[in-house]
Specification:
It contains no helices and three strands. By secondary structure, it is mainly beta. Strands 1-2-3 form a three-stranded antiparallel beta sheet, with no helix packed on it. β1 and β2 form a beta hairpin. It starts with 5 loop residues before the first strand and ends in a 21-residue tail after the last strand.
Length: 54
Amino acid sequence: MLTGHTVRRILHSSGRAIGVQCFDVDDVPVTVLADTVVIAAGALGTPSCCTSPA
């Protein structure tokens, strides 16, 4: 699992994700290949209708 990385491209083959090209917090490019690829976004952009009142 990687955190703090910004994905630039999802790599795919035969219609299936096989990895990602991303950048770490220092803007160093990283390529990760894996049998299973899960992409999850952070809380930015979460609709305000779904947050609890302060």
